[in-house]
Amino acid sequence: MATDIIMPQLGESIAEGTVVKWLVPAGGIVERDQPLLEVETEKVALEIPSPAAGRLSEILVKEGETVPVGTVLGRIDGVPVSDVINRVGGVVVRPMGPVAEKGGKGRATTGEEGTRSEGSAEGMEEVHLSPAVRHLAKQHGVDLSQVKGTGAGGRITKKDVEDFIAHRHTEAAQTVSPVERPATTHEEETGDEIVPLTPMRKTIAERMVNSRRTAAHVTTVFEADFSAIAACRKGRPLTYLPFVVHAVARAIRAFPIMNSSWSDEGIVIKKDIHIGIATALEEGLLVPVVRHADRKSVTHLAQEIADLAERARSKRLNPDEVLGGTFSITNHGGFGSLFSTPIIHHPQIAILGVGAVQKRPVVIHDAIAIRSMAYLSLSFDHRAIDGATADRFMAKVKDAIEQSDWEQNL
After folding, report:
1. For the chain, which domains are there?
2. Cα(5)–Cα(51) distance, rounded to whole angstroms?
3. Which one of 10, 14, 113, 163 has the largest count of C-beta atoms within 10 Å of its C-beta?
């Protein structure tokens, strides 16, 4: 019995999606809820789980194609449960004679007549790898034992494999003479490289241009003393970001106009404070939302921010988790940047940039002291907010950051 794989409804306003990558090749065996393919919309990129166990018999929508919601992407034929004994990254292990002892060898196959390979207990380490990593390694013939993992606990990420492949190609190219090395016409003429635009990159470009075209951007910059937060963080697995989110949420309570959007009928002030956190991905940027940020402690905010960021990077966010933000924060200081002029996340009217926290000499009560300082930059829509309001809001954020009672807010 065949099961259709359908392009799901990934949010109320989403009408279509793009197939980025099939994580299982045609003919491959899958388990129910195993990540099957990566799909990208203008809102989010995520992995779609398999609706059933069986064999991926048909791929009807190829990688890179954009189709409407409800489109059949492929089909899965049912496979007897006895055929699915064990799986290591999409490879089904079947009984082939006597069961192997622990540490002994076994046979693996990708299908009834698929390619088989000898394996050992070492191969079971692949269980800890994501399907995307295993598929990419198999596709390019990469021996994962030669790849150095940069993820948590030394885990191999997709980028690690891509970097390994790129390095291998570079070494191969250096060993080929200019006469032997193939080149496209464009490369022969200019030596330039064209990187195709992904759907996410196109969407980011459109949104940024639309925001600059629509909102009257102005940026104001404050410097804040993070020394009290630095002292509170000692011995705790907390970054600076949840403290900033907590401070911003408190300041928004005092200045509700900052939690609004512009409309032709008037300025719409939002009742709930939902703060978007700009999250850098390998292929672009997402802004998952921390809902009701003003009701949460610093510890709760830290846990939620870490969870959203991890799931954004592994493409496991729900579509609703990137919708409904009322104010945004971008922590560009995590990459060493001191200050920036961020672009407003339309239709919001403001975004706060947080620079790197660095120890600097400052004057306090006519004396020079070493303090942990950072620049905070607020880009705001001058149609809705005047400079005086923006500066008073920033002064409130600065005061909240520099307070000495952070222990009470953990």
Report:
1. 2-124 (2.40.50.100), 200-409 (3.30.559.10)
2. 7
3. 10
Phi, psi of 54 (to 5 degrees): 155, -155
- pLDDT for res 102: 37
Confirm if 380 and 348 have CB atoms less than 8 A apart: no
C-alpha span between 219 and 212 (Å, rounded): 13
| Measured distance CA(316)–CA(47) in Å, rounded | 6
Query: What residue ranges of the chain have pLDDT lower than 70?
Result: 10-14, 42-43, 79-132, 135, 139, 151-153, 169-188
**C-alpha span between 42 and 250 (Å, rounded):** 31
Catalytic residue among 186, 292, 382, 399: 382
Q: Give the pair of three-digit tokens for residue 286.
A: 């997402």
pLDDT digits (tens, 9 = 90+) for 303-342: 999 999 999 888 888 878 888 999 999 999 999 999 999 9
β-pairing verdict for 289-290 and 327-330: unpaired
Cross-strand pairs, 91:
88
How would you classify the pairing of strands 260-263 and 266-269?
antiparallel
| pTM of the entire predicted model | 0.64
Q: Where are the alpha helices (DSSP H) in 42-130?
A: none
DSSP per residue over 249-279, as a string? HHHHHH-GGGSEEEETTEEEE-SS--EEE-E
- 3-class DSSP state for residue 286? strand
Residue type, 157: T
DSSP for 159-199 reads HHHHHHHHHHHHHHHHTS-TTTS---HHHHHH-----PPPH
> By the 8 A CB rule, do 144 and 137 touch?
yes
Q: Cα separation of 339 and 341, whole Å? A: 7
Catalytic residue among 272, 386, 391, 399: 386
pLDDT tens per residue across span 245-273: 999 999 999 999 999 999 889 999 999 99
Q: Is 225 a catalytic residue?
A: no
Q: How far apart are alpha carbons 175 and 113 in whole angstroms?
A: 37
Nearest to 327 by CA among 377, 376, 290, 284: 290
Q: What Å distances lie between residue 247 and 226, 301, 332, CA to CA?
A: 12, 11, 17
Q: Alpha-carbon Rg of the chain, whole angstroms? A: 26
